[in-house]
Predict the structure.
Amino acid sequence: MKKFGLASQIFVALVLGIVLGALFHGNETVMAIIAPIGDIFIRLIKMIVVPIVISALVVSIAGVGDIKKLGKLGGKTLLYFEIVTIIAIAIGLLSANLFHPGSGLDTSNLEKSDISKYEATTKTAESHGFAETIVHIVPKNIFESMAQGDLLPIIFFAVFFGLGIAAIGEKGKPVLGFFEGILDAMFWVTNQVMKFAPFGVFALIGVTVAKFGISSLIPLGKLVVAVYLTMIFFVFVVLGMIAKMSGTSIFILMKVLKDELILAFSTASSEAVLPRLMDKMEKFGCPKSITSFVIPTGYTFNLDGSSIYQALASLFVAQMYGINLSLTQQITLLLVLMLTSKGMAGVPGASFVVVLTTLGSMGLPIEGVAFIAGIDRILDMVRTAVNVLGNSLATIVMSKWEGEFDEEKANAYFNSTKQADVA
C-alpha cells in the first residue's frame, strides 16, 4: 500500500477545510473554534524561521570558502548562477504584476484589525526612500532584530558572519560545525512542524472560506495557471536563448533528459534524479570534473523554478490582501529572495519556508500561505522539473566555457537515444 504522504495529507486537509468553510459560511462560532489551530501552526512556522535563516545562510555562505579553492571554475559557476537566478526572480515578479493572480478576493468581510498591521508596515515602507531602505537592512543590534523577527537585518548579519567564518579558514571550522549542528537540528524541528501542517491548513483555509465564501478560491486557479505559463516562458525563451548562445538546443537537452524530467515532475524531488542526471551529462559530453561540481552546487545555488515560484507566491499573497508593493519594495523582495533561496535549499519544504521568510521580511501576512500550501504539490512538480533542466544546462554552459565539452560524444549519445526511441 502506498504511503499516505504529507503532500496528500495537506491536499485532503485543504479539501476538508473548504467543505467545512462552505458549510458554515459566516458562522462565527465555528470560526472561533478552529481558528486557534491555524494560529498555532503560524506560530510554529514563525518559531523556526529565524534560527533556520541564520544557520542556513551562515552554512551556505561559509561553504563558499571551499568553492573558492576550485578557482576559476567556482567563480564562473557562481557568477552564472547569480545572473540566471536574478533573471528568474525578475520574470516571476513581472509575471505576478502582469497576471495579478491574487486579485479577486473580496476582503469586505475581513476585519480591519486583521490587515491593519500589514497595511501600516507597507505604508511605512512606501514612505521610505531607497536610501532609508538600505540603511534599515544594516542592523544596529542583531539581538534586537532577532527578538523583533526583523529578517532583513538578520539576513545581512548572517551573510557577513558567514563570510567572516570563510575568511578565517581553520579557526572558523568549529564555528561552522556549530551552525551545521544547529541547521541539522532545525531540519528535524522543521520536519516535526510540517507534520502539523495538514491541521494548520485545514483550520486556516476553513476560516478563510467561512469568512469570504467559496469565491475566495478563484485566485488559486489563477496562481496555478500563472506559475505554469511563467515556467514555460522561462524554459523556452530564457533557457532556450542561453542554450542557443552556448551552441546547443533546449529541445535536444529535453529529449536527452526526458526520463529524468518526467521522474522529477512526478516525484517533485530533484534529489531523486541527481545520480542519473550526473551520469547522463557525462555521457552527453560534459567532463566528470565539471559535472560533479556544477550539478551538486546548482542544487543549492541555481534553483530557477523555485525562484520563479517564490517571487510569484510572495506577490500573490500581497495581492490577495490588497497590498500594493512599490518598485523599491519589489527590488528589495528580489534581493531577499536571492539570499534566502540560497540558504534554504537543503531545508525540508524549502520553497514553503522561503516564501514565509520573504513575506515576514516584507511585513506581509504569512497567513496567506495557507492558500498555497494545499496546491503546493501541483506547483512543486513543475518547479522541480525546471530546476533539473536549469542545472543540466548550466553544466553544458560551464563545460563549453572551460573549452572541455566533447561535441562528438554529445552527438553520438543524442543519436543513440533517438535510435533507442525508434526501436
DSSP finds 20 helices and no strands in the chain. The two ends are 34 Å apart (CA to CA).
